[in-house]
Design brief:
It contains 17 helices and 18 strands. With 608 residues, the protein is of the alpha+beta class. The chain has five domains: 93 residues, no CATH class; 116 residues, no CATH class; 31 residues; 251 residues, no CATH class; 58 residues. The relative contact order is 0.08.
Length: 608
């Protein structure tokens, strides 16, 4: 959403706001105008009993008057308080006692407010100064300046800001200029942020030059770059956006059409279409953040392939490398804090298992089997809509198998949710951001264990093969589950799949929905005739049977030789690469042997 720039009203700006009250000099100033000791009740005995009433003051009056004076630790406020109870007057007759004394120009009458008598009581100077613990010179100076200024309060000239008022017009002109720029919300923000962003091609320096080059700008309103930067940083919470990546294609297409459309009716239709698209994305994120006592949410995704080895050599860009795979499952909604107790990273290398639907389904199956589901009736699985890994019939078959044969009796339903294309930010992406940030700090990574050490700081590591078996759901489901084309709904267009227990023991019914909030479909079985979902018994896939392409192995060996020399094979830290090369060569020998045997048998059969 586009809007104009405006000053920050919440106090959050680009630069941290200064707090002068915490400065050492201001702390000392407050202590200077704070009470040093408790007040004492005056015990004066005046001969002229009709003038001063010091003896009539109670201790309560003394404490209240003392507290009122020191309520504010500010000299100007205290001076105003003193002028309220110290009234300076000019004496009519000036008769010094002797020649050593100058004629008295000002006489001060002192008084105090009595709470018990509800009126001001005149007291002597000694009693007044003793109650407030101040000197007579402070009172005399205030009274003198008050009379000389014609009855105006004394202004404090020490310290303070004496320059800001000189640049008020310039500041207002600069802020008016900044307010004309259009701003956008953050595209990559993971929550609501008060910061807004100007176009990426701008900068503070460019904006300053644009301001001073305005044709109608008066000469006295031009500013230096330092003042412009100070106003921008201290009054606005604005940044400069970077060019966006990984943006929703539908959003870009619709926004560009809206910009170029001249027909108002057509433009309105496009705006409605874009609005509906955004509302669908919002409905998906509402499901991601939903929390209920009987609901358990799992979100899972695969991180981008982590290269082995990771080196700074130039030839790395042109070389094929081995990969470490990481599929992370987060237990809980998007509002749940990410800890190693609810984040599980399933990791394996390229030579162990293929990164396909069987591996992902086995990971989710393992997580469901090893989670405490007490008092849970609904399981919600959230993943992106990648058809090769997540959104496929293999995932549906796995969930059907678990719900029909392994799930606790109180778990009645599984809901699988996929996002709108282009709006698929889910909790595992937050984990990947932390991992990739740490990986970028390392120049060289040689072993899979180095990656696992980084991933382990944010999650619980589960090793594929040893901790989690990979099951062949794809081949096992062919005799139990119907082909997708025979299902009672269109698989491709569905965003939600609801799997529930069937009345038939050991079986389930499934429903596909194209909407996130409305259930319009019908629950039906997808198993073949005389088959149940519990009949699905996938076999365990043997580890380390993946044959890596020879061209990739050549590139890996070349990369290691270029970076570490010809003796790299003798180093202990390269055991992983030696094992991969030896396993691949043994697989090739077995394939060659089987091909030779096959050829000999075929020749013999032809001879017969």
């Amino acid at each position: 959403m586009e809007c104009l720039a405006s000053p920050s009203t919440s106090g959050k700006t680009r630069k941290r706001t200064a707090h002068p009250e915490n400065w050492k000099q201001n702390i000392a100033k407050r202590q200077r105008y704070s009470p040093k000791e408790s007040p004492n009740r005056p015990r004066c005995q005046h001969l002229r009993k009709g003038v001063y009433k010091c003896e009539s003051i109670t201790m309560r009056d003394v404490m209240n008057f003392h507290a009122a004076f020191y309520k504010y630790h500010n000299k100007e406020t205290q001076d105003a308080f003193l002028l309220k109870y110290c009234v300076p007057v000019i004496p009519k007759r000036k008769r010094p006692k002797n020649k050593k004394h100058h004629p008295k120009t000002i006489h001060t009458n002192y008084s105090i407010y009595s709470v018990s008598q509800k009126k001001k009581i005149t007291i002597c100077q000694k009693a007044f100064l003793g109650i407030l613990n101040i000197t007579k010179h402070r009172v005399q100076y205030i009274a003198k300046k008050f009379v000389e200024s014609g009855g105006q309060a004394v202004k404090e000239k020490r310290g303070g800001d004496h320059k800001s008022h000189l640049f008020t017009e310039k500041k207002n002109a600069v802020m008016l200029f900044i307010n004309m720029f259009h701003i956008d919300e953050a595209h990559y923000c993971r929550g609501h942020s008060e910061r807004r962003y100007l176009p990426a091609e701008l900068s503070i320096n460019k904006m300053w030059k644009m301001y001073n080059k305005q044709p109608n700008l008066e000469a006295n309103l031009k500013v230096k770059k330092g003042l412009f930067r100070k106003i921008f940083n201290n009054n606005y919470n604005l940044g400069f956006g970077s060019p966006r990546t990984d943006v929703c294609s539908t959003c870009i297409l619709l926004l560009e059409k809206i910009k170029r459309e001249s027909d108002e009716a057509q433009k309105q239709r496009l705006m409605v279409e874009h609005r509906v698209h955004k509302l669908k994305a919002k409905a998906f994120f509402n499901l991601v953040r939903e929390e209920r006592p009987n609901l358990k949410t799992f979100s899972f995704d695969c991180e981008k392939n982590l290269p082995l080895p990771k080196t700074p050599d130039q030839i790395t860009y042109y070389s094929r490398q081995l990969y470490l795979y990481n599929c992370t499952i987060v237990e809980g909604s998007s509002k749940t804090p990410l800890t190693t107790q609810n984040v599980f990273a399933y990791c394996w290398t390229e030579d162990q298992y293929a990164k396909g639907a069987n591996a992902i389904a086995s990971i989710v199956y393992h997580r469901l089997m090893n989670t405490n589901l007490t008092d849970i009736s609904t399981i919600r699985l959230i993943a992106d809509g990648c058809p090769g890994q997540n959104k496929n019939s293999i995932m549906i078959a796995m969930c059907s198998k678990w719900l029909s044969s392994s799930a606790p009796d109180h778990v009645q339903r599984i809901e699988i949710v996929f996002p709108i294309v282009g709006h698929s930010f889910i909790p595992p992406d937050r984990v990947f951001a932390h991992v990739e940030k740490d990986v970028r700090k390392l120049e060289c990574i040689l072993r899979p264990e180095d990656y696992l050490e980084i991933i382990g700081t944010y999650s619980t590591i589960v090793r594929m093969g040893s901790d989690c078996e990979v099951l062949n759901f794809k081949s096992g489901m062919s005799s139990v589950i119907k082909d997708v084309g025979s299902w009672h709904f269109q698989f491709k267009h569905c965003k939600r799949f609801l799997i529930q227990r069937s009345k038939e023991i050991g079986n389930v019914v499934i429903q596909g929905e194209v909407h996130y909030t409305n259930n319009l479909g019908v629950l039906k079985k997808i198993t073949r005739k005389n088959k149940k979902a519990s009949d699905l018994n996938p076999e365990v896939i043997i580890q380390n049977i993946v044959r890596i392409k020879p061209a990739k192995l050549v590139d890996v060996k070349k990369l290691l030789t270029t970076h570490f020399g010809n003796e790299w094979e003798n180093e202990e830290e390269f055991d992983f690469y030696r094992s991969v090369l030896s396993q691949t060569s043994s697989l090739e020998e077995e394939e060659d042997a089987s091909q030779e045997v096959t050829c000999e048998l075929q020749v013999e059969e032809r001879c017969l």
